[in-house]
Design goal:
The chain has 156 residues and is mainly alpha-helical. The chain has one domain: Ferritin (Up-down Bundle), CATH 1.20.1260.10. The chain has five helices and no strands.
Length: 156
């Protein structure tokens, strides 16, 4: 394979790839947790929340692929092992919370907020490396998670 020469040195690319790998692991864990909630949801507002969770996990699935491809574009291998994802993830994919609609929504908001905070902390380093492509991607993810958190919060 050819060396990657995209105007970022190896150390910059490694640092950015690690940020993306943590976000990938977190998003994958959050995706499975969201899908599990979707499957096990019950309550008076079942249908609307069921659809909201489905829309969310479908969006997360697309983002997972984009994150992995960005890591590859930076020149690094993407390990998709569940053990590695669990080790790196900022969210716990286990459903040890109240499975009521309110409990599920609160859990979702907390996880969105963890991701939002992580992205906000990561962005300055990505921007200072002048990696506009990753910064744009992270800003889009930030907006998506803020909107999802708002929708979940508004459903409480």
């Amino acid at each position: 394979m050819m060396d990657v020469n995209i105007g970022l040195d190896v150390a910059q690319r490694e640092e950015i790839a690690e940020i993306l790998k943590v976000l990938l692991a977190t998003t994958y864990s959050f995706y499975t947790k969201t899908q599990n909630y979707h499957w096990n949801l019950a309550g008076k507002e079942f249908y609307s929340i069921h659809l909201l969770l489905q829309k969310q996990y479908e969006e997360l699935a697309e983002a997972i692929d984009e994150m992995a491809e960005r890591v590859r574009a930076l020149g690094f291998f993407v390990s998709g092992g569940l053990g590695i994802f669990k080790e790196k993830s900022l969210v716990n994919d286990e459903m040890k919370v109240d499975l009521s609609i309110e409990g599920i929504l609160k859990s979702q908001v907390v996880d969105h907020e963890k991701i939002i905070v992580y992205i906000r902390k990561a962005l300055p380093g990505v921007e200072s490396a002048h990696d506009g492509a990753t910064a744009d991607f992270l800003n889009k993810r930030l907006a998506v998670h803020e909107k999802m958190a708002w929708m979940m919060r508004s459903s409480l």
